[in-house]
């Protein structure tokens, strides 16, 4: 099961807070993945198509318990994509037109509603239920082991902007981007994704994301330390090679045997331990010397060669 499917399944099992929360969830489901058509007799037909079992279960359960309407259920299997497609249909029947108004799909004059009606999300808990329904119907949450990304695909810019504003009321910044004929309301911040999922009830999924964040943080820290160590070793190796070249040049000029005792001792140490850093080389001296003391001896060797 994909991470998105796990999130949707967890959200579909959340219990409503008030008696109107179920209506808000159902309203979001129908708006995000439903299609409304007019029948030949002037009535309506509402069809919700989905590949997610959680959407189908939630749609049927809420329609029966809240709207008291008849539904038709069809399962189709895609040979090409090897997935099941669920089709839930509310055929033309008495009370369907009023239900469409109640769900915020039609206004009282039976015109199409473009945004999210205020009566559907009047309470804070209903607002969260609507967001939950949108996530169940059209949400995508990337596997946190990769990039952090959450989005909801909807039809119509007005609905996308309204959903973005609804999410903003939870202290989460969601952007809107056009995707061909649809719109995506998306979030890329792991912190914001966790805050939103926590608010709508996906606590287990939030724990998975936080665990992934912690693991990424550890890996990034290890990588930084390894990269820093490699860089230090590269610099040390380069510095040691430069010091060996200084010593070789002193020998070539006949200056090696005439060096002061401190500089001669340094040359002996460097030749004995050509791969050590100055800090580690200092520990091999008797008595031990600091990195700064050895560095100053390197500078004195350079000065001697420059002046000769």
Automatic annotation (TrEMBL):
It holds the Pfam family HTH_WhiA. Residues 21-101 form the Sporulation transcription regulator WhiA N-terminal domain. Residues 222-304 form the Sporulation regulator WhiA C-terminal domain. The keyword DNA-binding applies. Coiled coil: none annotated. NCBIfam families: DNA_bind_WhiA. Involved in cell division and chromosome segregation. This is Probable cell division protein WhiA. The lineage of its organism: Bacteria, Bacillati, Actinomycetota, Coriobacteriia, Coriobacteriales. The gene is whiA.
